[in-house]
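TEACHING EXERCISE
Course module: macromolecular assemblies
Task: Read the component lines below, then compare them to the predicted structure of the full complex.
Student: A.B.
Group: 4
Components provided:
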Amino acid sequence: MSLAGLAILVALVALAACGRDLPTAAVVPLGLPALPVPPDAPLQKARVDLGRTLFMDRRLSHNNTLSCAMCHVPEQGFTSNELGTAIGLEGQTIRRNSPTIFNVAYVEQLFHDGREFSLENQAWGPLLAGNEMANPSIGYVVEKIRTLPEYTGRFEAAFGGRGPDMMTIGLALAAYQRTVNSANSRFDRWRYGGEANALNAEEQAGFALFVGKAGCVACHPVGEKAALFSDNRFHNTGIGYANSMELPRRHRVQLAPGEFVVVEDKALDSFEKRQPDVGRYEVTLDPADSWAYRTPILRNVALTGPYMHDGSLATLEDVIEFYIRGGIDNPQKDPLLKPVGLAPGEKRSLAAFLRALTGDNVAQLAAEARAAAPGDALPAKDPASSYKRPY
Amino acid sequence: MKSKQIVRRPRLSLIALATAAVVAGGPALADETSCSPFTPLIKGQEDLVYVWTLGVKGVGDGSDKLVTVDVNPKSKSYGKVIHKLSVGGRGEIHHVGLSDDRRYLWGGALDSNKIFIFDIGTNPAKPKLVKTINDFVEKTGFVGPHSFIAMPGRMLITPLSNKKDHGGETGIAVYNNKGEYVSHNAMPKEGGGDGYGYDAAINPQKNVFLTSSFTGWNNYMMDLGKMVKDGEAMKRFGNTSVMWDMKTMKPLKVFQTPGAPLEVRWSWKSGDNWAVTTTALTSKIWVYKQDAKGEWQVKDVATIGDPAKIPLPVDISITADSRGMWINTFMDGTARYWDMSDPMKPKEVFNKRIGSQVNMVSQSFDGKRVYFTSSLLGNWDKKDKDDEQYLKAYNWDGKDLKLAFEIDFYKEKLGRAHHMKFQARDLSTLKPLDSAQSALPLLAQSR
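Instructor-supplied answer key:
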C-alpha cells in the first residue's frame, strides 16, 4: 500500500471511531449514577471534541471577548472563583453566580431557576442573551462559526455531513458538557469503593452529621449506589427574598489584604441598582416559587465558591453558618430550613466532609479543556458582512 | 501604516546614552501628563488636546472616538471641538500614548483589545486612523492594553488582564512603531509579586522602569457599586509594583504597595531620584527611592482624604519641577494639589471640586493650565444625574484654579471623556528622538 493509501486508511479508521458512540461508563466516575443521554444525541468523540473547542472559543461572543469558559473557568471549578455574580458582554451585570459545569449532565432543569430542560437548548441562552455573549441572532453565530478556519469540516465529520447550524452547535456543546463529570472522590472510594480508610475520622463524622443531625441530606440526597448530592428541586432559603426586599445591608469591603472598611448600601446610590430577581417564580409565575433556586450538586463543592445563587457566601464555613441559622426567614421560606445546633467541632467535621467530595479528575478535565482552546485570530470579516445566500 | 513612520530604530544599547541627560541634567522634563522621556515635549502653549472618548449607547453615534479640542486662547475656535473621529464600536477605550516622534498617537481599548494608531503629524488638527492592531491577544495572551509608553522605535504596552480567566494576572508587551508585535513578558509572581499590572514609567538614566498594578477585566468592566458589594471581586486587586531593568526587560524588585497602585511618575527635577504613585483603594501616596546602598525602596508617605470613605484617588500629574502634584479623587469629584517639595513629607495645600466625578488630569509644561476629564471606566462611572461627562480647562496661578472653558461631552453628543494628550499644530519645531544621529540635545529641541 502506498503512503497515501495508508494515510487514507488511517483517516477512515479515525473517522469511523469518531462516529461511534462513546461508552457512557467511560465518562462516569465512581459515585455517579448512570449518565442520562438523550437517545437522539448520542455521545460521540467527534462531537465531544468539537463541543470542547466551541466551549473554549472567545469568538463565540459578539465582540470576540467571551467564551463559555470565561465564566466557567476550567481551573476555577468550571465556575468563576473571582466573582460573586458574573458579568457579560461589555461588563453588563448578570444577576446570578456562574453555576459549575461539573456533572451538569445530571441537572434536570438548567439555570438557577430551571427555565431550560436540555443542554442542547440551554447552549443558546448565553449565546443570545443581551447581557451575556450578546450575539445579535442565531444566524450570526452560525455564520461566524462557519467562516472560522478552526471549524472547517469538523461539523460535517461529527454530524454526518451536516454543517454548523442551530441544532448541531447545540448538540456539540451538549455532548462535551455531558463528559465534564467528576467523582471518584475520597468520599466515593470510602462509600462506594470499599476503601475504609479513604475518609478520616473527622470526615466520617462530618458525613454522619450531613445525613443526620445537620439535615443537609434532605435536599442533597446520598444513594446506596451513587450520590448526586442534589434533589434537582427548587428551594427558598431567604437570600433571594432579602435581596428583593432590600433589607438594609452593610458591606465589609476589602481595600487590601487585611484592610477593610464598612460601606452601607446608600453610599453606593450613584451606581447601578440591584436588578430584580424572584427566582423560580420568573419561570412558573407561581407565587409559591418566589425566590426559590435549584439545589446545586455538591460534588467538587470545595472548588466552586463563592456559594449560593448570588455568590454571596465566600466559604463553606459561611454556608454552614447560614444553614444552621435556618436561612433567612420569609413567608415562602422552605420549611426544610430550620435552625440546627452544631458545636464548633461539628461544623469543622461537616466542612471537612464537604472538602472530601473533590473528584480525582478535575485537573485532567481542566487540562483537556485548555488544550482544546482554538486560536484568537479574529474573523476576517464580520459575519453579517461576509454572509452570502448559499442557494 | 505607511513605512515613513519608522525611520529610527536605535539600538537599545544607545538608549541610556541617548537619554542620560533626560532625567539628570539639562532642562527639566515635564510630565506633560505622562509623556515618555523619549517623546519630545511641548514646552510652550499647547494648541490641541486630544480626548480619547468612550462611546455611549444612545449618545450621538454611540461609538468610541478621538475628539480634538482647540485649546489655544489665541485661536478663534478656542475651547471648541474641532474634530471627531469615530473608530467604531464600544471597546472600553482608555489611554493614549504618543510615539517617540510625537507624530502618532496610540490608543487602546480595554475590552475589544484593539489598539488604534492615529497619524497626528500630517495634520494635527485632523487626526487620521492609519492602523488598527487586532492581534494583541493572539500574540501576547494578555487582555486590556492600557498604557502606551514610547521607547526608541518601540512602544511599551502595559495590559491589565489575560485571556485565560479575565483575572488580574498579566504582563508587559512591546510593539514596534509599525504596529508589529515584538515581545512580551509576564509580570512577576515570584519574590512577592502578584502578577498584576497597570501603568509604567521609564527612568532611562537609571536604566529602569517602574510598573504598578490594578485589576483584571472581571473587575474593570463591572459596575463599581456591584463590585464593591462583591467580596470575591474586591480580593482581586493588585498590591504590588515592580522595578524593571529597562534593557533586559527583567524584574529587579517587587514592592508591596497594597490597594491598587495606579499612575506612576518619576520626578523630572535635575538631580532627583524618586518616583511616586498613589493607591486607589487605600488612598496613600507612595514614594520610591534608592537607599544608601543603591537599593530601591518604597514608603507610604501620606494619606489622601479619608480612606474610610474610599475617595478613590485616580489620576495624578506631577509638575515640571516636581514641587507639586495634582491628585484627583473620583468619588468626591475633587482635584487636590499637593506640595511635594519634600517628597517624603508631602502636604495637601489646595483642593477644589471639579465636578461629580473627576478622573484624568493633565497640566501644561509650565503648570499654568490644567485640564480635567470625567470618565474613569464605562461601568465605574456614576449613573443618572451624577454621570457628568466633561473636559474642563482651568488656569492655575499657584493659589486657585479658575475655569477657562468647559465642554459638556453629553450635550455635544460625544460620550465619556477619558484620557488626554496635547499637541502642537506646527510640529516643525519638535525634533524627534534620533539617537542614531544625535543623542544629547534631545531636550533642547523641545518646543
